[in-house]
Amino acid sequence: MSEKLKVGIGGLGAIGLTLARAIADGTLPDLTLGAVSARDAEKAKGNLAAIGAEAPIVPLESLAETCDIVVECAPASVFETIARPAIETGRIFVPVSIGALLNHMDLVDRAKDTGARLVLPTGALIGLDAVRAAAEGEIESVTLETRKPPLGLAGAPYLVENDISVERLNEAKKVFEGNAREAAKGFPANVNVAAALSLAGVGPERTSVEIWADPDVTRNTHTIRVEADSARFTMTIENIPTEENPKTGKITALSVIATLRRLTAPLTAGT
Ligand SMILES: NC(=O)C1=CN([C@@H]2O[C@H](COP(=O)(O)OP(=O)(O)OC[C@H]3O[C@@H](n4cnc5c(N)ncnc54)[C@H](O)[C@@H]3O)[C@@H](O)[C@H]2O)C=CC1
Ligand SMILES: O=C([O-])CC(=O)C(=O)O
């Protein structure tokens, strides 16, 4: 039997801790936990013990030293600290703060030289298989409409800078319209999905994004609409927020688990 691949997890929050649990309990039998990084090492020790996991706790920049796969599950502000060593060391790098990746696309060029691979989960979104397939032909337009409970958007830099209030809304309010690059900059903790969609399809400049603060939704709801020479499609996902972080849908961690599973699976379904 070949040796298990070692996974390093940067950030043990809503996504990272769920992934650590899935590795520790054998959900991903070809993988083992190589190392983790956490802001609070003592708390992390307790969290790992509670899920029956054992792994050294190392600084973010050291994950790539010992791990074959580095999974970034941290705030966007420390993205580069995790990503750059993983790319320089030729690892498989799985990011979830995909909005942050848009500011570091030089890493993709660098990966060509080091042999690293960037593998982006669909995350909280839907349908990137169809978008990637359509992008092999001609795509005319891609739009993302995101609707969130107003509190899930509060504090976003774009709202603060433009003095847009999402308090006491009686009806849905469109708070942003622009492209995916502008959306990722203005809403760094909210529209990783826009960045992922753009990288699967026609790039951040040509991917249109609308963000709505909607008092009638309790779930983070994303609709993608694609017009291409092969097909027209519209898909919607309604994400149940995690208990740990209401900004993050439960399916995100599952998407990361599914992404890691297909790295070693003898059969994969979906493009
Ligand atoms: N791609 C997608 O579809 C989605 C991406 N996300 C993004 O994924 C990322 C993680 O999300 P969550 O797990 O919900 O966040 P979270 O806030 O629950 O967890 C982040 C963890 O990183 C830790 N951390 C912060 N600074 C650190 C440091 N310097 N060193 C080590 N650990 C540190 C925090 O203590 C926390 O435990 C965020 O950037 C979020 O925006 C979230 C949802 C969907
Ligand atoms: O819907 C979610 O779970 C989170 C989200 O929009 C994102 O981070 O892009």
TrEMBL record:
Domain Aspartate/homoserine dehydrogenase NAD-binding: 11-121
Domain Aspartate dehydrogenase, chain residue ranges per copy: 170-257
Catalytically driven reaction(s): L-aspartate + NAD(+) + H2O = oxaloacetate + NH4(+) + NADH + H(+); L-aspartate + NADP(+) + H2O = oxaloacetate + NH4(+) + NADPH + H(+)
Location of the active site: H222
Record: residues binding NAD(+): A124, N192
Signal peptide as annotated in the record: none
SUPFAM superfamilies: Glyceraldehyde-3-phosphate dehydrogenase-like, C-terminal domain, NAD(P)-binding Rossmann-fold domains
Source taxon at top rank: Bacteria
Pathway linked to the protein: Cofactor biosynthesis; NAD(+) biosynthesis; iminoaspartate from L-aspartate (dehydrogenase route): step 1/1
EC top class named in words: oxidoreductase
A single GO BP: NAD+ biosynthetic process
Pfam families registered for this protein in UniProt: Asp_DH_C (PF01958), NAD_binding_3 (PF03447)
Enzyme Commission number: 1.4.1.21
InterPro entries documented for this protein: Asp/hSer_DH_NAD-bd (IPR005106), Asp_DH (IPR002811), Asp_DH_prok (IPR020626), L-Asp_DH (IPR011182), NAD(P)-bd_dom_sf (IPR036291)
Single annotated GO MF: oxidoreductase activity, acting on the CH-NH2 group of donors, NAD or NADP as acceptor
Additional record remark: The iminoaspartate product is unstable in aqueous solution and can decompose to oxaloacetate and ammonia.
Function, as annotated: Specifically catalyzes the NAD or NADP-dependent dehydrogenation of L-aspartate to iminoaspartate.
Family, similarity comment: Belongs to the L-aspartate dehydrogenase family.
The protein, known as: L-aspartate dehydrogenase
